[in-house]
Amino acid sequence: MATRKRRPEDNGMMESWNGHFKQDYLWIQGPMTFLETRQIVDEGVVGYNTQRTHSSLEYLTPSEYAERKRRTAN
Q: What is a GO molecular function of this protein (predicted)?
């Protein structure tokens, strides 16, 4: 699905993810170099998927939810 330019409402799920990610991992760090930013982003993605629970995933982390889905599919 393509989204229109300057229409964040077309892609609300990713806009929400970006906002939470920036708030939780980037803005609290202050100014950083590119390499520092890259390290924080890498660590943040792991943390977001393995530590942060999500109400839309029955208050599980994405990793826990995916594992549950794998187990019930087999």
A: nucleic acid binding
Please write the tens of the pLDDT for every residue from 43-70.
999 998 999 999 999 999 999 999 999 9
Q: How far apart are the first and last CA of the chain?
A: 30
| CB half-sphere exposure, 14, CA atoms < 13 A | 8
pTM for the model: 0.69
CA angle, corner 19, sides to 13 and 24, nearest 5? 125
Euclidean distance between CA atoms 40 and 72, whole angstroms = 34
Which of 3, 43, 10 lies closest to 52, judged by CA? 43
